[in-house]
Amino acid sequence: xxxxxxxxxxxxxxxxxxxxxxxxxxxxxxxxxxxxxxxxxxxxxxxxxxxxxxxxxxxxxxxxxxxxxxxxxxxxxxxxxxxxxxxxxxxxxxxxxxxxxxxxxxxxxxxxxxxxxxxxxxxxxxxxxxxxxxxxxxxxxxxxxxxxxxxxxxxxxxxx
Length: 160
Known about the structure:
With 160 residues, this protein is an all-alpha fold. It contains 4 helices and no strands. It has helices spanning 13-61, 66-89, 91-118, 126-152. Helix 1 packs parallel to helix 4 (126-152) and helix 3 (91-118) packs antiparallel against helix 4. The longest helix has 49 residues, at 13-61. The protein is rod-shaped, with a radius of gyration of 24 Å. The protein starts with 12 loop residues before the first helix and ends in an 8-residue tail after the last helix.
């Protein structure tokens, strides 16, 4: 039976291990994709803030150019906006959260692969796989809990 062909009933321990490994790899892929997205978003905001801040400073340094002064003020306003957006979305810490989840999924996949490779097929038990599955569920529980805690916390700019 292929792991992606639906729910398996009465699978052998080896087939169950393959199904579990596929789920772990999917979780790892999810965390990897989110980590990259959040990391890019955080970096884009930081670079945009730096560019706008530098541009407004240079433009305000130029004398007698009213159009330039207006542009500089717009850049300063955008820097302020970006400074408020990044803490609200908290991309950097969400990226780190996904990196931790990715590490834990990869470690779990390695442990499962080692268990399957080092255990004769007729000695692999559901109890051994249940322990791995429990750890898999714990990773998702921890990730979900941390995600919700980060979203509940007020942004640094909103704290008194």
